[in-house]
């Protein structure tokens, strides 16, 4: 039976369950290439091992187990690699998306304890799970437009399947939601009080289960009512985020009188204008795609994010402004949502590879 303690993740079989702890608490468990590779190795080892009935994953917080799940990919690495041409940038996205696909198609229960911050890449390693657990501390978002990126890791697939136009709203704004809204938007399955997580986790390693479904049923039996969500603007979300393009959405919000509309418009004006158009197109295309096709599309898109316009990457600039120089003043190009040429948006959806040579050609 496999046990892996790489420092950044701990993977061990306890009883009949493969247990994974993300162990990079000072970085809020942001995913490095090494973590992606270790997660993949653990899941491949357990996928066809009949002694492992299910997989459970959690994050270590600064005060110990739980408290933070995963804040996403390691954006400082992405900035450095994207600025210097480090080929590990390509490896990171190819391997991360393959990992996301494996989680969706694992073939046995995958139980994600989504406590604390669950953003970006943290969504990628949880949304494909068969049981997605949130707590009263959960802060969930796909905030990639803030750094000039797009909601990747299968974000097109799972956001496009939220009710109404919630997927477009979450994708364009990067807004953070809590547990009740995550459940209502089909991004989580149930609420487990944070102070009960440790006992449930321990029981997974000590109890005897008849099969994988029994493991999942045991955890789900501990769920409690999530209460009311905080997002009250569902009608407005469905109205504005159904408009035909990003320019129409921003302008309609600005023309309205409501406080929610004004605040949402101001938020969108701070995002990369180019990526607002790209992301809206991504979500709408993904609605009719399989997971594998969506991940291949996102792999094409991420290549364009870093290499479409040498020296003018919206993503490198966005990460610089947020996490490197921290001036929070990205110089987007184009600077206004009204000024984005359609051909620049279309380029993101043209694959740089022929189908047979695509890095994710093997995904089904």
UniProtKB/TrEMBL annotation:
One Pfam family per UniProt: ECH_2
Source organism, top-level taxon: Bacteria
UniProt-listed GO biological process terms: L-valine catabolic process
GO molecular function: 3-hydroxyisobutyryl-CoA hydrolase activity
Keywords: Hydrolase
Listed SUPFAM superfamilies: ClpP/crotonase (SSF52096)
The Enoyl-CoA hydratase/isomerase domain, residue ranges: 17-349
Keyword Hydrolase set for record: yes
InterPro entries: ClpP/crotonase-like_dom_sf, ECH_dom, HIBYL-CoA-H
Keyword hit for Hydrolase: yes
Protein name: 3-hydroxyisobutyryl-CoA hydrolase
Lineage: Bacteria, Pseudomonadati, Pseudomonadota, Betaproteobacteria, Burkholderiales
